[in-house]
Amino acid sequence: MPARAAVAEGWPVLLTSVVVGITYGVVARQSGLSVAEASGSSLLVFAGAAQFAAVGLLREGAGTLEVAASVLLINLRHLLMAASLRPHFARASLVERLGLGYILTDEAFAMGIGHFRRGHGDLVYYATFGTLLWLCWNIGTLAGAIFGAGLEHPERYGIDFAITATFLAIVAVGVRHRTDLVVAVAAGIVAGALRLVGATTLAVVVAGAVAPIVVLLARDEPSDTAESPFRTR
Question: Per residue, what are the HEC states of the chain?
Answer without folding.
Answer: CHHHHHHHHHHHHHHHHHHHHHHHHHHHHHCCCCHHHHHHHHHHCCCHHHHHHHHHHHHCCCCHHHHHHHHHHHHCHHHHHHHHHHHHHCCCCHHHHHHHHHCCCHHHHHHHHHHHHCCCCCCHHHHHHHHHHHHHHHHHHHHHHHHCCCCCCHHHHCHHHHHHHHHHHHHHHHCCCHHHHHHHHHHHHHHHHHHHCCCCHHHHHHHHHHHHHHHHHCCCCCCCCCCCCCCCC
